[in-house]
Amino acid sequence: MPRPASDKRERLTEAAITLARAHGLEATTLAAIATEAGVAQGSVYYYFKTKADVAQAVADGVAESLASARSTLGPEPTDALVGFLGAYVDDAAAICAHGSLLATASAGTGSDRAHREAIDWLAERFGDLGFAAEAARARAVHLLAGIEGGAALAHALNDLSPLEREATHLGRWVANASA
């Protein structure tokens, strides 16, 4: 008889993301993931054989979360781009860790999904503003690098003002964008 479907993998992934955001991926142990998810430690090993499997799950989970957030930003490109920046500030506690969390998770897995999807989405919005594909992509990379740099600095200094200033600056840059 087949086993019933379980949400254990999702709970374990969410626990891994929560712990990695709070303590960093390197400090996140399989035992801590099991405790956070409320499952037996052996369950973790069933779903995640190695720390690289955990890193991949964290990177994929964060990518899905960011994609979901982008889907709520609306169709008007300038508003969507400014909304993207605002999401970084609004979710600052988690986002401040995203840059280093994604970089760490990506380094362990080769997964750059979250960054590539964000750049593609941003480039589409700049394309909607009339920029040619190459210029739209260059602007997308600039915007993502700027906001993630602000987030990384805010996290390192334990001070949100670098992130807030960068989001404000990039928001003005987007508002004044013309192809």
Automatic annotation (TrEMBL):
Question: Which residues fall under the DNA-binding region feature?
Answer: 29-48
Domain named HTH tetR-type: residues: 6-66
What does the UniProt keyword field contain? Answer: DNA-binding, Transcription, Transcription regulation
Source species, domain of life: Bacteria
Keyword set includes Ribonucleoprotein: no
- InterPro entries on file: DNA-bd_HTH_TetR-type_CS, Homeodomain-like_sf, HTH-type_TetR-like_transc_reg, HTH_TetR, Tet_transcr_reg_TetR-rel_C_sf
Q: Is DNA-binding found in the keyword set?
A: yes
Q: What is this protein called?
A: TetR family transcriptional regulator
